[in-house]
């Protein structure tokens, strides 16, 4: 068995940082569902703004919310842009949803890995191509 991506939320914006909460990240429930992320599922978070990376679990929240809770609140602040990734064990890659998030933490594009065409991601000269 190998570990593959099972869902990705790309460029979600931190709306809250709650240090006194017990832990986790709270994510808009609709976004979680479309990204194939279950409540209490383990996720990795990469903070694009400051370079921090951490592992925690996801909780469903209200529309537009992406909150860093507990110790994770020290790893980002409101306005930071993040990537959230969940994983699965499988013999071969079964595919996965990847959501591109825009202003107000709304889904602006729905992708599905593997990508069948070259696609620039986050800048010039960077693309993801599946052969």
Automatic annotation (TrEMBL):
Processing and modification events after translation: Is synthesized initially as an inactive proenzyme, which is activated by self-cleavage at a specific serine bond to produce a beta-subunit with a hydroxyl group at its C-terminus and an alpha-subunit with a pyruvoyl group at its N-terminus.
Listed under GO biological process in this entry are:
alanine biosynthetic process; pantothenate biosynthetic process
- InterPro entries per the UniProt record, alphabetical: Asp_de-COase-like_dom_sf, Asp_decarbox
The record places the active site at 24 (schiff-base intermediate with substrate), 57 (proton donor)
Primary localization class, coarse? cytoplasm
Q: What is its EC number?
A: 4.1.1.11
Q: How is the cofactor bound?
A: Binds 1 pyruvoyl group covalently per subunit.
Residues engaged in binding substrate: 56, 70-72
Q: Which reaction does it catalyse?
A: L-aspartate + H(+) = beta-alanine + CO2
Origin superkingdom = Bacteria
Name its cellular compartments: Cytoplasm
Pathway stated in the Swiss-Prot or TrEMBL entry? Cofactor biosynthesis; (R)-pantothenate biosynthesis; beta-alanine from L-aspartate: step 1/1
- Coiled-coil stretches are none
Q: How does it assemble?
A: Heterooctamer of four alpha and four beta subunits.
Can you name this protein? Answer: Aspartate 1-decarboxylase
Organism of provenance? Corynebacterium vitaeruminis DSM 20294
Native organism taxonomy: Bacteria, Bacillati, Actinomycetota, Actinomycetes, Mycobacteriales
């Amino acid at each position: 068995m190998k570990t593959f991506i099972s869902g990705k939320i790309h460029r979600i914006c931190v709306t809250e940082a709650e240090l006194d909460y017990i832990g986790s990240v709270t994510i808009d429930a609709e976004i979680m569902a479309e990204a194939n992320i279950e409540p209490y599922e383990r996720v990795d978070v990469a903070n694009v703004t400051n370079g921090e990376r951490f592992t925690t679990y996801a909780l469903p929240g209200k529309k537009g919310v992406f909150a860093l809770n507990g110790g994770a609140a020290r790893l980002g602040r409101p306005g930071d842009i993040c990537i959230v990734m969940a994983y699965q064990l499988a013999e071969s890659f079964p595919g996965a949803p990847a959501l591109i998030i825009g202003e107000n933490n709304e889904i602006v594009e729905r992708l599905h890995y593997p990508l069948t065409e070259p696609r620039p991601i986050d800048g010039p000269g960077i693309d993801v191509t599946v052969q």
